[in-house]
Amino acid sequence: MSIRFTVIIFLEVFIMTIDEAVRIRIQELLKKENMKISQVSLMGGLTPSTLYDFMNGTTVHIQVNTIQQVCAGFKITLSEFFNKNYFNSLK
Predict the structure, then answer these.
(1) Which pTM does this prediction carry?
(2) Element holding 35 (H helix, E strand)
(3) Cα four-point dihedral sign 13, 19, 21, 27
């Protein structure tokens, strides 16, 4: 019983929300493309504060149309953005 309880707690820690996964993906793309949040925001038609607020947690959730604008800033499709295994196991 104790081992099962420990496993459940352990798994719970590593299951992320959609918003956490989106933050991770944006960080990956920023690093890969060597870009700053302000650059991606402006290229996608967002104000930099919109993306900064989401990335630092001031804004908890992100809308699909905002993700679409982020994708435009990175010059990728929504499919390319969500093409990561961690989007398949979210809570």
Answers:
(1) 0.82
(2) none
(3) negative
Token readout for 52 is 């900064």
69 vs 43: CA distance, rounded Å:
8
3: Cβ–Cβ under 8 A, 6 or more apart, which residues?
none
The domain locations on the chain are: 2-88
Tell me, what amino acid is at 42?
A: L
Query: What does the block give as tokens for 38?
Result: 């302000």
Residue 18: closest CA among 73, 52, 66: 66
Q: Which CATH architecture has domain 2-88?
A: Orthogonal Bundle (1.10)
Quick: pLDDT tens for 37-77.
Answer: 999 999 999 999 999 999 999 999 999 999 999 999 999 99
